[in-house]
Model the fold of this input.
Amino acid sequence: MKKSKILFFTGAGISAESGLQTFRDSKNGLWNNYKIEDVCTPQAWEKNPALVLDFYNQRRIQCKEAKPNLAHELIAKLETQYEVVVVTQNVDNLHERAGSSKVIHLHGELMKVRSTANPELIYQRENDISLGDFCENQSQLRPHIVWFGEELDPEILDSAIKEAFTCALCVVVGTSLQVYPANSLPNYVPYASKMIIIDPMASDIDFDAGRSIHYINKKAVEGMQLFYESLVKM
Done:
């Protein structure tokens, strides 16, 4: 018997509860320590690649020290009853470490690097990257991250859209849906499918007025607990 598909669309809010800083947090965000134009753009890479590498080396260390939280774990646990697909804006690997088997990363992956000359040469890498670390074709390695000003991989975006088209339920967790084009993904969910948004400011998120949406105005962990408990009772 075919399982119903749940699409989870996750953002920085779910990782924040594992202790990973977000850029948009006004109190303790990464913006307070770094300027976006200095570390997260192609221009930053051209100007000071050593600084960019150091920034992501620090992020990689923090990611390895962080642990999946209950929200990650509950999403993975639902695979026993449903077909679960995770589409995430996050570059960490906490969904995978929690046990999710199908995760689509829209903005790249922190634990991977790629060639500066050939973006299709991608390697798993958990250690630091330094200037002089080359790929097999002798070009410098860079973080496998979609920087501001770069386009999403069209194949990855298309894959995510196809999953949205065929889901019975879409659950948005920990994202304010502000980053384009990732924020357009829920628009591809069929109107007949259910949609739930879990975020402290969920009901403030501007969305298609014609769609039926259930809002859970909680952080990711508490919101996922409420959602999970209601789902297993059905």
